[in-house]
Write a structure and sequence with these properties.
single chain; 176 residues; Fumarate Reductase Iron-sulfur Protein, Chain B, domain 2; 11 helices; binds iron/sulfur cluster
């Protein structure tokens, strides 16, 4: 990260999101269902980034907030300046993974995030059995929800083999 231009410029060039458009009205935080569980609500994340200080950027990249965001788009819908916070949060998650600053309390969410992306990467769609296996292998939480699996299998909700999409080349390109 260039310290002079800072993280704001990096975010703008990588995602198109202009952090400085935010004028701190707070509508995003008021409408965010996860607000109360977050260490920094979305409008506070925006303010911290606006300071462009390495210390605040680091706090944001170590926060739980970026992993609790479920990309529901509620904040974007409410924002009078159309600041794309979900897009920004996605970028912050990628940066936290790259810089190895993932919040310790968010490890299970990250395990799910990685297992989900692996499923899409290898099959082109969500393969539930692979998702669960990938999640459990990362968390060692082997017994969680185990009682649900037999019922789902009987009802045909858990296909044992993945369905693959046709456009494998495009999928690879997409992930690159
Ligand atoms: S709703 Fe938009 S302008 Fe208002 S605080 Fe959130 S990001 Fe900033
Ligand atoms: S997209 Fe994320 S930050 Fe925005 S309202 Fe939804 S959960 Fe909250």
């Amino acid at each position: 990260m260039s310290e002079k231009k800072g993280f704001i410029a990096e975010v703008k060039s990588e995602t198109g999101v202009n952090v400085n458009r935010c004028y701190q009205c707070g509508k995003c935080s008021a409408g965010c269902a996860l607000n109360e569980s977050m260490d920094y609500p979305p409008s506070v994340v925006m303010r911290m980034l606006q300071t462009n200080s390495a210390e605040n950027v680091s706090k944001v990249l170590r926060s739980q907030a970026i992993w609790l965001c479920v990309s529901c788009q509620n904040c974007l819908t409410r924002c009078p300046m159309q600041v794309d916070i979900p897009q920004l949060m996605d970028y912050l998650r990628v940066q936290a993974l790259a810089k190895k600053t993932v919040n310790k309390k968010s490890k299970k969410i990250v395990a799910f995030h990685r297992a989900f992306l692996d499923s899409i990467k290898y099959t082109g769609r969500l393969y539930e059995v692979g998702l669960v296996a990938g999640y459990k292998a990362r968390t060692f939480d082997l017994l969680q929800d185990l009682n649900v699996a037999p019922r789902m299998l009987i009802k045909g909700k858990l296909p044992l083999l993945p369905e693959m999409v046709k456009g494998k080349k495009q999928l690879k390109k997409f992930f690159r």
